[in-house]
Amino acid sequence: MGNIVGLLSAPTYSIFLFVSGQVVSTLPPHMNSAIMLTAAMLGSVELPAAIINVYFIIGELVNGLQWLGMG
After folding, report:
1. DSSP state string for 7-23
2. How many whole angstroms separate alpha carbon 48 and alpha carbon 16?
3. Terminal Cα distance for the chain, rounded
4. Model confidence, pTM
5. Helices 29-44 and 46-53 meet at what angle, rounded to 10?
6. Contact 52, 71 (CB under 8 A)
7. Cβ atoms of residues 70 and 45 within 8 Å
8. Tens of pLDDT along 18-57?
9. Cβ contacts of 67 within 8 Å, gap of 6 or more
Protein backbone atom coordinates (compact mmCIF):
# COMPACT_ATOMS: atom_id res chain seq x y z
CA MET A 1 0.00 0.00 0.00
CA GLY A 2 2.86 2.36 0.81
CA ASN A 3 4.42 1.83 -2.61
CA ILE A 4 1.14 2.57 -4.34
CA VAL A 5 0.61 5.77 -2.36
CA GLY A 6 4.23 6.77 -3.01
CA LEU A 7 3.87 6.23 -6.75
CA LEU A 8 0.61 8.16 -6.84
CA SER A 9 2.19 11.08 -5.00
CA ALA A 10 4.46 11.98 -7.94
CA PRO A 11 1.70 12.73 -10.48
CA THR A 12 -0.37 14.41 -7.79
CA TYR A 13 2.51 16.74 -6.91
CA SER A 14 3.19 17.41 -10.60
CA ILE A 15 -0.44 18.39 -11.13
CA PHE A 16 -0.28 20.64 -8.06
CA LEU A 17 2.83 22.41 -9.39
CA PHE A 18 1.29 22.85 -12.83
CA VAL A 19 -2.00 24.22 -11.50
CA SER A 20 -0.39 26.52 -8.94
CA GLY A 21 1.83 27.91 -11.71
CA GLN A 22 -1.28 28.88 -13.68
CA VAL A 23 -2.72 31.00 -10.86
CA VAL A 24 -2.22 34.70 -11.50
CA SER A 25 -1.76 36.88 -8.46
CA THR A 26 -2.86 40.49 -8.43
CA LEU A 27 -0.74 41.30 -5.39
CA PRO A 28 2.44 43.35 -5.67
CA PRO A 29 5.67 41.31 -5.84
CA HIS A 30 6.76 42.15 -2.28
CA MET A 31 3.42 40.87 -0.91
CA ASN A 32 3.77 37.65 -2.93
CA SER A 33 7.26 37.20 -1.50
CA ALA A 34 6.02 37.76 2.05
CA ILE A 35 3.25 35.20 1.63
CA MET A 36 5.63 32.62 0.15
CA LEU A 37 8.14 33.19 2.95
CA THR A 38 5.45 32.78 5.60
CA ALA A 39 4.24 29.54 4.01
CA ALA A 40 7.79 28.19 3.85
CA MET A 41 8.41 29.00 7.50
CA LEU A 42 5.17 27.32 8.56
CA GLY A 43 6.04 24.26 6.48
CA SER A 44 9.50 24.03 8.04
CA VAL A 45 8.10 23.57 11.56
CA GLU A 46 5.90 20.60 10.62
CA LEU A 47 8.53 17.87 11.11
CA PRO A 48 9.97 19.21 14.40
CA ALA A 49 6.46 19.62 15.80
CA ALA A 50 5.58 16.04 14.86
CA ILE A 51 8.72 14.55 16.41
CA ILE A 52 8.43 16.60 19.60
CA ASN A 53 4.77 15.62 19.99
CA VAL A 54 5.56 11.94 19.40
CA TYR A 55 8.24 12.06 22.08
CA PHE A 56 6.46 14.10 24.76
CA ILE A 57 2.76 13.36 24.19
CA ILE A 58 2.70 9.80 22.84
CA GLY A 59 5.82 8.74 24.71
CA GLU A 60 7.43 6.95 21.77
CA LEU A 61 11.20 6.67 21.78
CA VAL A 62 12.95 8.90 19.26
CA ASN A 63 16.53 7.91 18.50
CA GLY A 64 19.43 10.28 17.93
CA LEU A 65 19.31 9.92 14.15
CA GLN A 66 15.67 11.03 14.13
CA TRP A 67 16.50 14.07 16.29
CA LEU A 68 19.39 14.88 13.95
CA GLY A 69 17.14 14.52 10.91
CA MET A 70 14.71 16.98 12.46
CA GLY A 71 17.40 19.67 12.68
Report:
1. HHHHHHHHHHHHHHHHP
2. 25
3. 29
4. 0.49
5. 20
6. no
7. no
8. 888 787 778 898 898 898 898 888 888 888 888 888 899 9
9. 51
